[in-house]
Write a structure and sequence with these properties.
InterPro entries: Pantoate_hydroxy_MeTrfase, Pyrv/PenolPyrv_kinase-like_dom, Pyrv_kinase-like_dom_sf
Number of helices: 14
Helix content: 40-55%
Strand content: 5-15%
EC number: 2.1.2.11
Function: Catalyzes the reversible reaction in which hydroxymethyl group from 5,10-methylenetetrahydrofolate is transferred onto alpha-ketoisovalerate to form ketopantoate.
Oligomer: single chain
Largest sheet: 8 strands, parallel, barrel
Keywords: Pantothenate biosynthesis, Transferase
Family: Belongs to the PanB family.
Order of helices and strands: HHHEHEHHEHEHEHEHEEHHHH
CATH topology of the largest domain: TIM Barrel
Structural class: alpha/beta
CATH architecture of the largest domain: Alpha-Beta Barrel
Length: 373
């Protein structure tokens, strides 16, 4: 920032023993906030949904301005659906951006210009359902604000009403100032600007290239930033520009700057979730730091799942299954044997008992081997 900017996992056998022999533990495992009976069942409370507030009040524009005044860097992160929004919520992210980068990292498009307004609304609503305290900013996609002020305002209103966003972001320079003014002062909708590398119009920039590398180009970025501030933007994203240029813009403005590939001197930072988590398969921008590398773990987990299904080691009776009451189970076995001539395998508590017996046998054998040695 510049001086200007005011126990170890429970094994499956042990789990079965606990489920059979310790009723209080079993009850806690079933009703705890992290383990619902099945994911499609609606939660019965905010606590069970895992969406308890992250120990903070709802973020607003005033929250962002306060962070800016106190020279505290602002954390923005992209989110594209309910799970990514919940992750941002639990991490205490300040600004949650429903970025049109989801066109590439979530929908597989070649660039961001191909996503539609309806698709952005769909994803924005999903993020809103997972966000309780973060401030939601949603991108207006390419072609939804470029033609005239009335179209820009109409689509911004849709994003607030239908997408449940709290602000919109536009990739545009000084030429879009009248449209931004109409959205902010005409419709009362907060706007975040975006200058530098603007992916929606990367073709006109010669591709995904760093901007502002010459004195003339850097001055043009400053002119854009000042025009967007005057038009009413409450923050501006600075993407892919020299750190020195981003610092200059940050020190000249009276509103926060959020950098992405713009160095450490901006008022805050933003990254694409899929990039920083290591789950986008095409490329990782130079400016992105991978805070995790989840792709190998995800692929490994999926491979293990496939192997366990093939080997019939998942699901396990008594651990991942539901049981009938003992009397009903006995009657059902008798009914099936008499009607269909089938002898069913063990299930429920019988299977848990078998697993418990196996655990006891293994422990006894290990103890005997230890004594003999």
């Amino acid at each position: 920032m510049s001086s200007r900017v005011c126990g170890k996992p429970i094994g499956s056998m042990a789990f079965a023993l606990a489920a059979r022999n310790s009723k209080p533990v079993r009850q806690a495992l079933i009703t705890g906030p992290l383990a619902r009976a099945y994911s499609a069942r609606p939660p019965s409370s905010a606590s069970e949904s895992g969406r308890e507030p992250a120990g903070r009040s709802k973020a607003t524009i005033h929250t962002i301005k306060k962070l800016y005044r106190e020279n505290k860097p602002i954390a923005m992160m992209t989110a594209y659906d309910y799970p990514t929004a919940v992750a941002c919520e639990h991490a205490g992210i300040d600004l949650v951006l429903v970025g049109d980068s989801l066109a590439m990292v979530a929908l597989g498009h070649e660039d961001t210009s191909q996503i539609t307004m309806d698709e952005m609304l769909h994803h924005s609503r999903a993020v809103a359902r997972g966000t309780r305290s973060g401030f939601i900013v949603s991108d207006l996609p390419f072609g939804t604000y470029h033609t005239d002020e009335s179209t820009a305002v109409a689509n911004a209103i849709r994003m607030i009403k239908e997408g449940r966003a709290e602000a919109v972001k536009l990739e545009a320079g000084r030429r879009a100032a009248p449209r931004i003014d109409a959205i902010v002062n005409g419709a009362g909708i907060p706007v975040v600007g975006h200058i530098g590398l603007t992916p929606q119009t990367a073709v006109s920039l010669g591709g995904f290239r760093v901007q502002g590398k010459s004195v003339t180009a850097a001055q043009a970025l400053i002119d854009d930033a000042l025009a967007l501030q005057d038009a009413g933007c409450f923050a501006i994203v600075l993407e892919a520009m020299p750190s020195l240029v981003a610092e200059t813009i940050t020190r000249l403005l009276n509103i926060p700057t959020i950098g992405i590939g713009a160095g450490p001197h901006t008022s805050g930072q933003v990254l694409v979730y899929s990039d920083m988590m290591g789950i986008f398969d095409r490329f990782t921008p130079k400016f992105c730091r991978r805070f995790a590398n989840l792709a190998p773990q995800m692929e490994g987990a999926l491979a293990q799942y496939k192997n366990d299904v093939r080997a019939r080691t998942f699901p396990q009776e008594g651990i991942h299954t539901y049981a009938m009451p003992p009397a009903a189970e006995e009657n059902w076995r008798r009914h099936v044997q008499q009607i269909y001539g089938l002898e069913l395998g063990e299930s429920g508590e019988n299977a848990a008992g078998s697993i418990a017996h196996t655990v006891k046998s293994v422990k006894s054998a290990a103890k005997e081997n230890g004594s003999s040695s």
